[in-house]
Amino acid sequence: EVLPPGDFHIQEERRLCYVALTRARQRLTLTSLTGTRRAPSVFLEDILRDPTAARDVERTAPATSPALPADPPGPRPEAGAGLLFTPWQTAACYSRVARWARDRVGPPPAEPLKLSHSHIETYRLCPLKYKLGHEWHLRGTSTPAMVFGKIMHGSVVEFFRARQRQPSLPLEELRHIYEQQWRLAQWPSADAYQQQEYYASGWEQLEIFYQNHARQPLAVLELEKTFQWSWEDVILTGRVDQVNRLEGRGVEIVEYKTGEPRPPEKAQKDLQLALYALAARHHLGLVPEWLTLYNLTMNQPISFEPTEKTASRALEAVRDVAARIRGREFPARPGYHCRYCDYRRICPEHEQPLLHPEAKLDSADAEDSGPKN
Asked: Are 339 and 68 in contact (CB under 8 A)?
C-alpha cells in the first residue's frame, strides 16, 4: 500500500488527537511529562498558538521537587575526587557544576554594570539563570516561538522602512519582506507542519496589520533606536522598536510582541516600556506622552500614558537587581518556568538522587541470600 505524501504518521496522530479532544463536554485537561528529554507534543503548541483557544486555556504548574540543601553534610567532593562514587554520597549525586553554581565566591561584575530590561527580567525570574546565561555566558537555544517572533518583528520594522522610501507600499511588497525574513531565519528542531502553521499564521497577522497601517500617515521618527543611559552606578541599555512623532515635542514609544496578549493592567506595569520612556526623556531628549504595547497575534495595541509611579517602580527594580548582582546573590527559584529553561540539566535544584552502587549490591545480595522456595 502506498502511503499518502508528507508526514503521514503526524497527520494521522493529529486526527486522532482531534477526535479525542472533541469528546470533552465541559472541561478538558491536557498533561505533559516533565523531566524527560522529549519535548512537549506539537499538538499542545497548536492549541496554545490558536488565539481563540488560548484565551480559554488555564495553565497550572507541576509540583517541583524539594531543593537540595545549600551545603550537604559530609566531606566535599574534593575529598574523593579520584573516585566516581564515595561511601558518604548515598543521598544525592554531587555535581561540581552544581557546587560552582551555588558558590557565591567569584570575580565581581565588570563596572560600570550594564543591564538591559531582559537582564533584569531574567534575574527577577531566576537569579541562577542570569548567572549561567550572563555571567558564565552559556548560550541558550532558540525555540520555534522565539524564531517566529523575530521574523514578525523584522517584517514590521522593514515594512515601515520601506514605507519611508515608498509611502504607498503595495501588499505584495510586504509579502516579499515577510518571505525574505523567513529565509533568513534559522529554525530549531521543528517539523515541516509546524513551520507551515507558523508561516500561515504570521502572514494572516501581517495582512491585518497592513490593512490597519498602510493608509495611515507615516509619523515614524526612529526604528530600532539603541541607547546606553548612565543612571546612578548602572548603564541601562536597550533598543526601542519604534518612536512615532506626536503633536509638539511629544512622541509615542511602540513595542511589538507576539504570543498571548497581556491584559491592560499588566501592560501598564511593563518594565521594558517604563525603562524606555525614562531613557527617551533623560537620554534621548524626547518627551514620551504615550507608550504602546502592540500585540501582533491579535493586532491589538494597548496604549497608556507613562506615570511617575511606574517610573519609580522600574528604577527601584534596577537598583535592587544591581545590588544583588554585585552581592553575588544567585539563588535558584524553581517553578513552572523550569520546564522551558535551557539550564535545567545543570541546575542544582533538579539533580536526581543517586544511590551508591555498593548499597545497590548489598540490597541485591540480601535478596539472593533470603529463603528459597
From this structure: no
